């Protein structure tokens, strides 16, 4: 018998040959919670990984969404991000899980994404240097942990910390879409570890990709520090 990491209900995991043979990991969310997580499948934006099923045709141009086209038309922000890939649509249920993880201190919830997060990494980004998006000192102190680091640790590889967050902003969840995309000053700078990424492919890890502003600010610093390319991976999109 298992207990769901989110709702804490007891459940029995269906037995399969892959589980018996050790080829799959134990379920950490119950069937009801797992079914409420909406995997990103089908067609999606080739840059940010946004599912095309979820928004009207006018917000799409060929293989890209209009947000990414807007970024790529900017002289300052174009060409920074090779691609982002995410596990799930950021629906109301995933919002609840992420909120419980970040704002109620339930760090163990990150373990529930371990198997699919590793699978996505091996499929799309194997061999890239893993860099969690840093929090400000104030936010880290407030939460007691960095959720991006918890997710990066799920991948089992060495983590690098070539980024520092130098500007403490109000919470992204409190900002409007326009505020998120209106970047006046980069919130990141290179750390002493930035030398290690020179000539390397970097994978940024965060919990949610919303407009792409945070990821692109981090990618800009990484490329200026000598990285040859930067991609990102998140739980939600």
CATH topology of the largest domain: Rossmann fold
Q: Quickly give the CATH architecture of the largest domain.
A: 3-Layer(aba) Sandwich
Order of helices and strands: EEHHEEHEHHEHHEHEEHE
Q: CATH top level of the largest domain?
A: Alpha Beta
Structural class: alpha/beta
Mean pLDDT: 89
Our count of domains comes out at 2
Q: How many strand elements? A: 10
Strand order, sheet with most strands: 5-10-9-6
What is the makeup of the main sheet?
Answer: 4 strands, parallel
Low-pLDDT runs: 18-23
Number of discrete helical segments? 9
Domain Phosphoribosyltransferase: 160-235
Protein name: Phosphoribosyltransferase domain-containing protein
Pfam family, one: Pribosyltran
InterPro entries: ComF/GntX_DNA_util-trans (IPR051910), PRTase-like (IPR029057), PRTase_dom (IPR000836)
